[in-house]
Structure formats: structure tokens, C-alpha cells
Design a protein that fits this description.
The chain is an alpha+beta fold. The protein has 5 helices and 17 strands. Helix 1 packs across helix 2.
Amino acid sequence: MSLITLEVSSEKEVRLDRYIAENTDLSRNFVQRLIREGNVLLNNNQVKGSTIVKKGEIISIKIPEPAKLKLKAEKIPLDVLYEDKYLLVINKPQGMVVHPAKGHESGTLVHGLLAYCKDLSGIGGQARPGIVHRLDKDTSGLLIVAKDDKTHKKLSQALEKREVERTYVAIVQGRWDAGEGTISAPIARHPTKRVCMAVVQNGRNAITHFKVLRVFDKHSFVQLKLETGRTHQIRVHMAFVGHPVVGDRIYNQDVTDDEKLLLHAAKLKFNHPASGDEICLVAKLPNYF
């Protein structure tokens, strides 16, 4: 276990979790977990992450030793489009779960990463080493993986600041002649269907930019750019505007048994967390599109 002690030097009003994240190499999500587990004290008292800190106060942070990883490495073919000593970018196939969860104890991207790469960041927790952001099981395309905690934090901050450009393509139901525009509709857990998300008035801010690339008789081919990254955001927003993604078994009532989810994370553009160089990667469309 390691200890970090901070004396608040800022006179601005700032939350405890944010202050720690901005003054250490710890990500905000990791800090929030430490606070929930009672490993962060403010003037020797346990407080919430939302507590506003004041100049001169003392923050004590305990960082437990990482739990020994119980996951077994599995040799799973990975389509690596970019790799250096800091990170790699994977083109995830449809049907692959990103990290272990109930019902998915093997065969995930994380299991494959453990066999492919010796070094992965630990910020995501024992079940999510290296995972900076996620894609749904049936969404294919580009995913960033961090090899160390410092890189992970910088990438997470870039995502939070909307400095990572994520472009998706999808085939949606119906003829959509909207051209291009922006969907701004808050998203939260569905009030009655707990496995679903929904547009909810008091939900979290969610913004998706769209451009209709081609219109067919019964479908439309659409480019989508995420400004925020809520769970199922594109799928929820497409259903909200009346053009659900083809093959979406949660949000599309007209899905057929043989349809695949036609949603692909096609492009990533971001500045490298170490060099600052711009990285732009494109994953070609799967054959089933």
C-alpha cells in the first residue's frame, strides 16, 4: 500500500475527486472508487467525492496494492491497427465482449490482451486492465487500450474533455432525408426496463452529430460523431428520432432473427498522450454491411 498526502493550495471552489485527479497521476474514476472504499480522508474524515475542498486542508490517499489478476490469458486473434510502448488500438470484431462480466467469464477482449501484451494499465480495475473506453458486444470497430496508468489517465482526460474524435457509421431503419444535424437529448436508465437506456428529461447530457451519407428504399447509411459517450448513446438517439439501427435487438422493434447490428466504430482521431502527435485511424467496414 502506498500513501499520498496533498495540501490544498487552490482558492477556487473545486470538488475533492476533481482536485485529486488534477494533482496526481490518478484518473478521476479511480479516485472516486478510492473514496467509495474509504481510502481517501479530508482532514482525517471520510467525505464524499463531491465535497468542496478549501485552501490549507489536508487530503490523505491510500492506494491499496493491486489485487492479483485471476483472469487467464487466452490466445485470441486480435486485429491491432496501431501499437507503441504506450498504447494500442484494436479493431474489435462484432460479437466480442470487451471485458469479463457475468455470463462472459472467458473469450473477451481482455483475455486476448493478457496473452498479447505483458503491460496493461491497472486503472480500469482487475477485470478491465488497459480498457480506456468500451464498445458494446455487437458493435465492431476501433478501441484504445492503455499500457500504463499515466497513459490511461491522459486518454481518459482527453475523452472527458472531448478531445478524442470518435466517428461511427450505421445503417438505420427508414428513409432519413435530414441531411445533417445534431441530436441533443439526455440519456439515463430506462425507468421500467432496467436493461435499457432511454431519453429521460433529467438524464445526463448526450450529444450526437449525424450526417446522412446515402438513402436507400427502406434504410439510410449514416455517419455519427459522439460528442459525449453515454451507454448505448447512438442506439438510443437513433431510436429516439425514429430511425433505429438495423439489427438492434434492444431498441429496434422491427429487428429480424437473421439481422446483425449494423453499427461500426470506423474512425478515431486523437493526440498521442506522450508525443502529442495526431493519430488518425480508420477501420474498414465489415463484410456484412
